[in-house]
Design a protein that fits this description.
heterodimer; A: alpha+beta; Multidrug efflux transporter AcrB transmembrane fold; 2 domains; six-stranded antiparallel sheet; B: mainly alpha; 9 helices; globular; YibE_F (chain B); YibE F family protein (chain B)
Chain lengths: 372, 254
């Protein structure tokens, strides 16, 4: 508790009050921003629920389906202020449907039935959740590590903007140069992020070199393995949301997915070696290399698992659905988890390779030759 | 040989050459985490409460990642306790957030992949969305807590008489140095995997408003934000736990 008291300085309290005001205002705004939407938004004012109907599917899964009659009050557009009623159906699973409650805000498409205004549900208004979470992230950063935190957030935002730009470029070329675009993007990402995190320095150059080489070599090794095994057991047809040729898209996803982790590790290794050099300016290249390897060894396990969990949990619900639809575990794995596994393995290879590359580059840059 | 086996072998060999014993442990932790993740799917498929699965499997995955990631007992114990506290705090944020966001299950963009499948499978997808969000952030929490606690162990071994307040300052400064790169690891990890979806959004000219309310996009962004929050609160919490753990260690040594 003493630590808490020391930490709550007057300055912090002022920042906290400002953040609370900003938070309050933005939450009010996202709940009243309907006029900025072209799509019609309506608020549920009354719900009449029917009796649930029992359902059993061909795989003996039991569920219940319920009909709701929603009374909606239109909040924007030229029908603003009018009321409509819409029927909605939801299951207890709510896998692709949803139960609505009073005060929920819903996107609707309006149309006329025999001169009467009606509509169909397009989706749920969720923007306020994102604003709320973003606000929590900003608050936590400002209260704990204001400057470094803002830089970290800034690098993420810049990367997101670049990402959107690259997707635009990809669409412009109709997916013909996927690897070229996202390969270049990966380099630009690394330069920008490391410049923001480390500033322009020798250290940044060494980290950048390690990131690009580590990621590049891992992709090359993987391509070689792909060729040797004829991509047996990789089911590109199971890839989600593809609108372009899946294979290059998959490689680009893998490249980008592992980039951050490889950068993370290279930064840690290079930073430690620079620290060692400043403590002992006469340290040899061999010693530096071995120290770098030691740092890398302790980071690689957790780091590989970070990406593994991110990649695999994305496949969680579709895996469940496959199993419940009477598919064998082998087929379920192939159709849902195989691509995620390949991605995890390739990024794992990149993370491991970055260790000798980062240690080697930093040692070459900093260390004295053994003979001296 | 399938490509997955071959890639797995390449990874194992590289980990053994470069990581030695530590590399072997890293590889085993990956295999174990894979096993437990698959086990979680099966438990939920057999109607075990998703909440219990989240807690149980979550704690196991944290333990595997942390205790197989480092050798030092002070480091791993501190990291483990801290990440358990973070897990509980995150859970109390995620449960209401998922209920407000309603991003469970599948979105309109999934309908092609779902053709011919029965969606009425009697599972509570809302609860399962809590499970997936928690599981996706566990790696990041484990990694951050190990980094902070390993750094502090090093500081304590060199300066055993630091006050708790000084230790707190050290913890925060280590935290600042890992924050930037950790955020980017998470950002790329999540966004990289959704490249195809973004091409879909922009190719079909989704408006900004549509994207900001899209079920799949919002679900993904919630995971990123929750991981960010997890990493940020891990830093002071690990340091706080360390201020308790360090004295315990001295008692053991006496």
């Amino acid at each position: 508790m003493k630590i808490l008291k020391q930490w709550f300085t007057n300055k912090k309290i002022v920042i906290l009050i400002v953040l609370l005001i900003i938070g309050g205002c933005s939450m009010w705004f996202v709940n009243h921003n309907q006029m900025f939407y072209h799509d019609t938004i309506a608020k549920v004012t009354k719900v009449a629920t029917d009796k649930p109907q029992k359902q059993v599917d061909t795989f003996k899964n039991k569920d219940q389906v319920t009909q709701q009659k929603l009374t909606l009050h239109i909040l924007n557009g030229n029908k603003k202020g009018q009321d409509i009623t819409i029927k909605n159906e939801y299951s207890d699973s709510q896998a692709a449907d949803q139960k609505y409650k009073v005060n929920d805000q819903i996107f609707v498409k309006l149309h006329h039935y025999d001169g009467k205004l009606g509509g169909t549900i397009q989706g749920f208004k969720r923007d306020y959740v994102l604003v709320f979470l973003a606000w929590i992230v900003v608050c936590l950063l400002m209260m704990s590590m204001a400057f470094k935190g803002s830089m970290a957030l800034l690098s993420v935002i810049l990367n997101a903007v670049l990402f959107i730009f690259a997707v635009k470029l990809d669409l412009h070329w109709q997916g013909n140069h996927v690897m070229a675009i996202f390969g270049t993007l990966a380099v630009v990402f690394s330069v920008l992020t490391l410049l923001l995190v480390l500033g322009p320095s020798k250290r940044m150059l060494a980290t950048l070199g390690a990131t690009i080489l580590g990621t590049g070599i891992s992709i090359l090794i993987s391509l070689a393995v792909f060729a040797l095994t004829h991509e047996k057991g990789i089911y590109y047809e199971s890839m989600e949301y593809v609108t372009q040729v899946p294979r290059p898209l998959f490689l680009a996803e893998t490249l980008l997915g592992s980039l951050g982790a490889v950068m993370d590790e290279s930064t840690d290794i290079v930073a430690t070696l620079f620290e060692l050099k400043s403590i002992d300016p006469n340290i040899s290249r061999g010693q530096l290399f071995l120290s770098g390897r030691k740092v890398g060894q302790s980071i690689m396990g957790p780091l590989v698992n970070v990406l593994f969990l991110i990649f695999m949990t994305d496949t969680f619900i579709s895996t469940l659905l496959y199993i419940k639809n009477g598919n064998s575990w082998g087929y379920t794995f192939a159709m849902n988890m195989s691509l995620g596994t390949v991605q995890s393995l390739i990024s794992g290879i990149g993370i491991v390779l970055a260790i000798p590359v980062a240690s080697g580059l930093a040692a070459l840059l900093l260390g004295r030759r053994q003979s001296v | 040989m399938t490509t997955i086996t071959a890639l797995g072998l390449v990874l194992l060999i590289l980990m053994l050459i470069i990581g030695g014993k530590q590399g072997w442990k890293a590889f085993m932790s990956l295999i174990l985490n894979f096993g437990f993740l698959f086990f979680a799917v099966i438990l939920i498929a057999f109607h075990v409460s998703p909440f219990l699965v989240t807690l149980g499997i979550g704690i196991v995955i944290l333990a595997i990642t942390i205790f197989m990631g480092d050798d030092d007992l002070l480091t791993t114990q501190t990291a483990f306790y801290a990440s358990l506290i973070v897990l509980l705090i995150l859970l109390s944020i995620i449960v209401p957030i998922e209920h407000f966001a309603m991003v469970q299950g599948f979105g309109a963009e999934d309908s092609d992949a779902l053709e011919g499948m029965s969606l009425y499978i009697g599972m509570n997808f809302l609860q399962i969305s809590v499970t997936t969000t928690v599981l996706s952030t566990l790696g990041a929490i484990a990694e951050a807590s190990i980094a902070i606690s390993a750094g502090l162990t090093e500081v304590i071994s060199q300066h055993p008489h630091l006050t708790n307040r000084q230790l707190m300052a050290n913890g925060m400064s280590i935290g600042e140095s890992i924050l930037g790169t950790t955020f980017n690891t998470l950002f790329f990890g999540f966004f990289g995997g959704f490249l195809a979806l973004f091409i879909w959004f922009m190719g079909l000219n989704y408006s900004f408003g549509e994207i900001m309310n899209n079920k799949i996009f919002v679900s993904e962004l919630i995971m990123i934000f929750i991981s960010f929050i997890g990493v940020i609160i891990t830093i002071p919490l690990t340091t706080l736990v360390m201020t308790h753990q360090r004295h315990k260690k001295f008692v053991d040594n006496d």
